[in-house]
Amino acid sequence: MLIPSALITGFGLGSMYGLLALGFYVTYSVSNTVNFAQGSTMMLGAVLCFSFWVTLGWPVWIAVAVALVLCAVWGVIVERIAVRPFVLRGSSAWLMATVALGIVLENVVLFTFGKDPRGMPPSVLTSSSFFLGGLKIQLLQVVIPIVGLSVALGLYLFSRRTRYGKALLAVVQNPDAAQLMGINVAAAVLVAFAISGLFAGVAGILIAPLFTISSTMGTLFGIKAFAVAILGGINNAWGVMLAGLIYGLAEALITALLGSIYTQILTFALVILALAIRPHGLFGRAAAQKV
Amino acid sequence: MLLTAACLGMVVLGPVAQAADTVKIGHVAALSGPSAQSGESITRGLTIAIDEINAAGGILGGRQIELIQRDDESKPPKGVIAARELIFKEKVAAFLGGIDSPVSLAIVPLANKEKVPFMGVWAAATPITRNKGNPNYVFRVSAVDALVDIKLLKYANQKFGATKAGLMLINNPWGESNEKGLVAADQDNASIEIVGIEKFENNDVDMVPQLTRLQQAGADVIVLVVNAPPGAQMMKSRERMGWDVPVVSHWGISGGRFPELAGPTAGDAHFVQTYSFFGEQGAAGTRLIEALKSKFPAIKGPEDIFSPVGTANAYDAMHLLARGIDAAGSTDGEAIRVALENLDGSYEGLIKTYTKPFSADNHDALGPDDYIMVRYVGNTITPVE
Fold this sequence. Notes:
The complex is a heterodimer. The longest helix of chain A is centred in the N-terminal third of the chain and has 30 residues, at 2-31. Chain A is mostly helical. Chain A contains twelve helices and two strands. The radius of gyration of chain A is 19 Å and the shape is globular. Chain A has helices spanning 2-31, 38-55, 60-88, 94-113, 124-127, 139-161, 163-173, 175-180, 185-207, 219-232, 237-258, 263-277; strands at residues 129-132, 135-138. Chain B is of the alpha/beta class. Chain B has 13 helices and 14 strands. Chain B has helices spanning 2-21, 36-55, 76-89, 101-114, 126-129, 145-160, 173-188, 208-216, 228-240, 258-262, 283-295, 308-328, 333-341, and strands at 23-29, 65-71, 94-96, 118-120, 138-140, 164-170, 193-200, 221-225, 247-249, 269-273, 346-348, 353-355, 372-377, 380-383. In chain B, strand 13 and strand 14 form a beta hairpin. In chain B, helix 2 (36-55) crosses helix 12, helix 3 runs parallel beside helix 4 (101-114) and helix 12 packs across helix 13. The radius of gyration of chain B is 22 Å and the shape is globular. In chain B, 54% of the residues are buried. The model of chain B is unreliable at 1-19 (pLDDT under 50). Chain A binds chain B through residues 1-2, 5-6, 8-9, 12-13, 110, 115-119, 121-122, 126-127, 129, 131, 135-136, 138, 141, 207, 210-212, 214, 220, 252, 255-256, 259-261, 263-264, and chain B through 32-34, 36-37, 171, 198-201, 203-210, 212-213, 215-216, 228-229, 232-233, 236, 240-242, 256-257, 260-264.
């Protein structure tokens, strides 16, 4: 019973990490940049959904949809304010600028949403459950991995099977050539950041019923998701998702077998070890360098 | 001309002279962050007590009490910085603490070194008052872990017939304080034994793995020691795995929106308190509820008094501290300490009537007879004993 319940926990949390890490993958694949404060965007999704649904009393589906759209818009804002101005000048300061913008967002939420952590009201996802081999499983615990894997699949199909997806990926290989081929590079990067924000929002809304909603809820998630992105090889969508699941399972199994005080020490140590052995991630490839 | 200058001088000096005349009392607590509600509840108790004392003519022959608050954000380093500011910059006569034991434990050595009385009103870690200070400047009107732990095991056994306790403890100094207390209480209680001890972090989303370990160890009751948000995570994990084991908890879970955060199973947790504003109230209780209603319009009745132990403990602690300062006859820290240790007469407080609440050996005004067990019914804390 210990191992099966840890596996369920691990799959759920792992797909959250994977989903957030896919946000890193999307922007990195298109522009070689990421929003380091991906955890803050995740928090924004949860906070907006709670505010629309509970505080303003909107129907839950509208609350979710509007929260997700606003997370995508936030992704665009991050790109315009904290990434593009620095990239255009050939600076790497977007690294710090995205972190700073995330901190600004967290503090704005602290002032507006309040200091008190809040809890999502019970919904059909948390109040419905079923038994599998004597193990009680909540509906949400199944929905989270399904949504995570569906998003990864959707992203894969979008980037490989659609003209627009292929155009996005062409941008990173050679922005100048892509521009000459009629691809709007600036718009492609914006879309990538919007998708990244959207993924973080989905992760935030899905994790909210399991967790408490506050301005700092995304911080540790964001750090773990970046570790997952690097672990998976940031240029491989399936690799990133798989690394998320591996990380989530490792966390849950370590907690189950050794206790929670060892979880962070051992999982991050494992990430370092994995990267020492495979510097480009478990499923990544070294980028070709033109000389 | 001279007269005008003199008048101006009076106008300018008037408020300054008056301000210097107040007795400054400090307060370091979580005023923001996950336990912000606890800080607010303590503030309410302190404010009403200070209003009452000031309206009755103040202390030390007519001096008014001025409350100076600093936020520790539940972080020990911030708490120490805040305490230093209160001691050295604001020159407070004494100061009170908040909900977080780690913060109070960090402040204790400073209070003892600088000889400024520090009064705990919530944090329950045993070593806060039973510290190495000689003399000891730390007092408390709150529960003491070592005594609460005895109560929790006894209650688990008597109320639920539990004989095998599984401990779920927050991984911080407060959790450690209770681990020691519960293990010691277990040795003195033949009818119940501890079968597993699990720790968790503040940010743990899922505690099913820890709970499964306790379930496999045969636990028939969970003894919980944590504040509200992670405590709610524990309750949600318990609900998710479908384990309807009784939960007996220390009172940290009453410091936030526990019913909202934990969801439908919040009421399953029975926890310890020092006071309940529900049921028949004594003179102090009736007076305090009326004062709270008129001072804080959001409070319409006992159901709106959130984190009630903060308000109750702070109210009594402030009155006892004021009596101590009055008896000391000055704002000198050492004089106040000695006066508190030798308070004569009895004071009819909210939680009980205090007769010689402190002594040189005992700096805790409350004991196990003053604890009650309660649970949430909706958003209200209801006695179950």
